[in-house]
Amino acid sequence: MPLFYFWCDGRRDKLEKFHKYEQSGVKEYWIVEPQEKLVNVFHLQENNQFGRREVYSEENRVHVAVLEGLVVNLEMVFVE
Predict the structure, then answer these.
(1) Which of 20, 37, 41, 44 would bridge 58 by S-S if both were Cys, CB 3.0 to 4.6 A apart?
(2) At 28, is the pLDDT very low, low, confident or very high (cuts 50, 70, 90)?
(3) With contact defined as beta carbons under 8 Å apart, do 49 and 26 qualify?
(4) What is the pTM of this model?
């Protein structure tokens, strides 16, 4: 089961995969929007639904909740 997903396929990722991953119990789901240099992160809540999205930009470092101690520096993700 994927921990996070690193590419945005528009509508498919934001709707179809979002609901499939939620129903499958994926604990953390990332949608990366490379053109906008944004990352949307969703965490599965106790009610088995994703909570509100957390939005990060290229200046941020993101702690990966499902892998303790892992921090992703988004400046490195969005290098041109």
Answers:
(1) 37
(2) very high
(3) no
(4) 0.83
